[in-house]
Amino acid sequence: MSRRTPRLFAATLAVAALALGACAEKTSDTPTATGSASAAATFPVTVGSLTLAERPEKIVSLSPTATEMLFAIGAGTQVTAVDDNSNFPADAPKSDLSAFQPNAEAIAAKSPDLVVLSDDRNKIVEQLGALKIPVFRAPAATTLDDTYRQITELGTLTGHPDEAADVTQRMKDDIAKLVADLPKRSAKLTYFHELGPELYTATSKTFIGSLYTLAGLENIADASDADGKNGGYPQLSQEVIVKANPDFVFLADTKCCQQSADTVKARAGWAGVTAVKNNQVVGLDDDIASRWGPRVVDLLRTIVDATAKVPA
């Protein structure tokens, strides 16, 4: 994805995938592009109101997260074009199609037999429907169950139900192991998750926030959006953050905005924050931190590994 503004990020994680970033880091689930369908796959198939008579062979993905899901379940060879922010896996057929300003004519020129997207911008779903192009919408997840469901549904639609089941089960097993190995603490460690240098953040009520909760951490931003008026994405002041004195600062703006432990330390008043003093400012991969596909396991592992270094 391209780097979103904090509000777009909020819309893209909750409507989205927040920040569209750059290169991807090592992942536990290396996507495979094998095109052979599951033995159990039969058509027609129906997911919600969408029915496909045959297995799609010209899929266009306008969602970086959906692209990752499609390749993870082995449907990569059926994907003929992805949007300009789908940068993982590296061999995804990137095009100049935009997910933020989708153009029905440009999409139709790819002759797709299935379009997968997360947001219905510019009434693109209606436009593609008028062109008789099947559309599957996979909106930003709010829970891990949403992620598992979308992977399962994409597996059904693409003829890879068994592979999709394998991916979701592996994710569940990996997450369960990470959580089971957490150290027992008398008091929770606190954190601030930075979406951008403007100090927008995500509360525990968001998808990203739920991962930190799984890791046993306490979010310093929760009180700043207790009424939910900011949709779980409030903007904090430097004073509020410094006063809260988080044990950790996680940066989801390392690629987009070149933020690092050094830039955080240089901010007025931040040198005395516990996270800074104890070298507990953690840089995240913007892309992985803004998507809700199989690589959420990698994100959770990064969080758990960082916090595990603090004695219980």
TrEMBL record:
SUPFAM superfamilies: Helical backbone' metal receptor (SSF53807). Keywords: Signal. Residues 58-312 form the Fe/B12 periplasmic-binding domain. The keyword Signal applies. It holds the Pfam family Peripla_BP_2. It comes from the Bacteria. Coiled coil: none annotated. Transmembrane segments: none annotated. Residues 1-24 form the signal peptide. GO terms for biological process: cellular response to iron ion. The keyword Signal applies. Belongs to the bacterial solute-binding protein 8 family. This is ABC transporter substrate-binding protein. It comes from Micromonospora endolithica. The lineage of its organism: Bacteria, Bacillati, Actinomycetota, Actinomycetes, Micromonosporales.
